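Many introductory courses stop at the sequence. We go one step further.
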Amino acid sequence: MALSARRRYRAVDYWPGFVDALSTLLLVIIFLLTVFMIAQFILGREVTGKDTALQRLNAQIAELTELLALERSGSRAAKEDLSSMQANLSALQAERDRLKADAASGGDKARAEGARASDLAGQLDRERELTGRALSQVELLNQQISALRRQIAALEDALNASEARDRESQTKIADLGSRLNVALAQRVQELSRYRSDFFGRLRQILADRPGVTVVGDRFVFQSELLFDTGQAELNDAAKPELDKLAAAMLELTRDIPPDIAWVMRVDGHTDVRPTRGAFPSNWSLSAARAIAVVQYLVSKGVPPERLLAAGFGEFQPIDAAQNEDAYRKNRRIELKLTER
């Protein structure tokens, strides 16, 4: 009667399940934070690249603006020279006309003035030639200014396009993070549903079996049900129970979509007393027992990629007391359906 009461008391111990649920939620939050940090890192790299390109374009625009100012200054100087040449040309033309008028009045004076008029006419031709070259320079400067303006306009268009691509990239990253969070939440919800269904089936299969208890979202097998003392080889009494477990897992493998990453984790635990015989430590004994369970399930057709063996030795006790009842509780094999 006392053992039955203790077994019923252990069956309603929800605290370990609550702790495991909190652990799973914490892992999901850590994963989401990792995804968010990766997205921020990618966005930071793209923004840094855009800033570098923007600085380079601004430097080119500043350089072209300076060249445009120099060209404008040269154009103004050429125009001033042209105006001065045109004034000199007008003065020479007036002087030539005056000399022609004086030459018409006759005499030696007219011949002298005529010679001077010829000199002035030569100077006038030279001034016209210089004026033509100045006009050509002005035209060339105007063409260079137009080309610089087109380059500045092209750089401004490239800068606007770069900023538009940057805004588009930020929008895409935000959308990707949102969709990733939704997909992750859906996968976690689906795995939780399949975990609930699977453990519901196991409760039906292993109901009221001595040495088997349910603690939260884990099935706990006492080691004595599966192994002899100090041994890691499954005894004959363990195999029928593990056969039922393998059948349930095969059915679960068919039900869960292949894109959901899940594994059945088999955890081996021992009590605190040192081992004797073939195993140098409780750690090695617990790991060997977990591996033995995994290998048996594989032999029954369970895919090995859906199984995980772990040994915890005496370092995860259920009961920290130093007595036979605590030792018996701590010697166990735990099964837990979890994410890979």
